[in-house]
Amino acid sequence: MELFELTIHQLHDKLKRKEVSALEATEAYLSRIESTNQTVNSFITVTADTARQAAAAADARIAAGHADILTGIPLALKDIFVTKGIRTTCASKMLEHYIPPYDATAWTRLASRGAVLVGKLNQDEVAMGSSCENSPFGPTRNPWTPEYIPGGSSGGSAAAIAAQQAAGTLGTDTGGSIRQPASHCGCVGLKPTYGRVSRFGVIAYASSLDQVGPMARDVTDCAILLGAIAGYDPNDSTSVDIPVPDYRSTLAAGVKGMKIGLPDEYFIEGLDPDVKKSMDAAIATYRALGAESVRISLPHTDYAVACYYLIATAEASSNLARYDGVRFGHRAGEAAGLIDMFMKSRAEGFGPEVKRRIMLGTYALSYGYYDAYYLKAQKVRTLIRHDFLQAFDQVDVILTPIAPTPAFRIGEKVDDPLQMYLSDIFTIPVNLAGTCALSVPAGESRDGLPIGLQLVGRPFGEEAILRAAYAFEQASDHKDRPYTGITGEPFYELPARHRTRSPRPAADQYQDLLRLFHHLRRQPQLPDLPGLPRSAGGAAGTEQEGGGLCHPRRTCHQLQHLTPQRLCPQELLLPRPPQGLPDQPV
């Protein structure tokens, strides 16, 4: 067995017994990256020299008898974590040459235990995406079948695990960005409870939703990594000061007598047959292990996607206002004045998906709409969280699919933002509720692509979901599935839509925006359900004669508005003042 095929705990045992050195393990992974990354495209930056230095220091630490379970273990980070002296791009041209002056807390904690950083991983730009196609460094490919997506936004993190390029990785999860790629790539990914892991040094997308989490080859490794990064951090105002359990020590406790909830809203018509088959098999496995399945309801699930895309885009609009070409990041070369420099810097630095979400969020935060949209979406979020807390009065964990379908082909949904957003329909509610969940391999599609199972726990209930995942992992044969993916084949031809090309015409981007407004709008079935308002002259946000984007004028706090107000589309791209969100420094 090659060194890069070992799990973290297996490699630790070899290092501890001095059967292999940390430098040898690091060289094995660097060689693996070199031979496979041209196909997978999971790494943006490979830190070979610093990795070798860290490995040498780890060997000295092991020789002195001070080895930790992570000492000498080659790890990689999603390129959203700032790393001192190492380029951090967030997969955006806006930060293409940014060198941070400090480390993110999560990496500081891993490095203090002797972990070795082999590189920074590709992702959707500023973590906005579900397929890892929204990157100026090119799309990451699924190591099992390179014509398919790895999931997103932490697609590089999951692909690096599946391609055996790192023993473990860290990602971030805003609406499923750890669990969904873990499912599509056949690894284990855990989204901890909001506040369990510090977000200090993580480039912000949506501050009230983002959470750092580990990705690994098995549940044991995931528990090891979570134990290393969890805990209170005074640098993060949202960090929670509660004890961190020894997650690994309780893995083998079993699930006999555990009540597992099956929400009606997640097992719906239209679920892919391969996904349904995998879920049915997983439920049968848990019953055989002595767990009890209980039907439950999470009634506000239907509103989660609309609620999420109001909250996430509104917070993104605020967080990304700092990228104005003045303090750091990309600055346009020629500009007629300050406003022109703002506009050109942001237009050149951000890709289409980021611009789309900034415009959606700025619309929701604009004058007269903050109460009508963002605050109402927060109220619906409270209802969704209440659903989960009520369910946990009846059950110990909740079992659901991760995504309605297995991984799809690269380019299949890139021109259909709505369908892309709906691929996270089963993961988004967990982020809105702020609780914990993980993905564990549970089957495969007819095309041989992995399918994951989602286990959701109560707030700070990571022990329970890890224990349930470990029991399933040991009882199933998915952990022993032989890897049949890439072997270092040459770079294959990208679909035409992913080749270097000019940006889409501005008019097409505005049409995308209008289409999203149309699909997010719905008749409220609850007083607190956010819906986009309509003006007397037609639907809000419709395009008027002359090509401008029409905004209805506010009338008190009602959702019905009378007088449309013209607003130049370019004005939506200007930086806005912070909205009082918990920002992180960059």
Report on the architecture of this protein.
This protein is of the alpha/beta class and 586 residues long. Helices cover 34% and strands 12% of the residues. It has 16 helices and 15 strands. The protein has helices at residues 8-16, 22-40, 48-63, 105-112, 155-162, 179-185, 219-229, 273-288, 304-319, 338-349, 352-365, 370-391, 417-422, 428-433, 462-475, 506-520; strands at residues 43-46, 74-78, 116-121, 168-172, 188-191, 212-216, 259-263, 292-296, 397-401, 436-444, 450-457, 534-535, 538-539, 549-552, 564-567. Strands 1-3-2-4-6-5-10-11-9-7-8 form an eleven-stranded mixed beta sheet, with helices on both faces. It has a two-stranded antiparallel sheet with strand order 12-13. The protein has a two-stranded antiparallel ribbon with strand order 14-15. Helix 9 packs across helix 11 (352-365), helix 9 packs across helix 12 (370-391) and helix 11 (352-365) packs across helix 16 (506-520). It is globular. The two termini are 41 Å apart. Mean pLDDT is 85; it is low at 488-504 and 521-586.
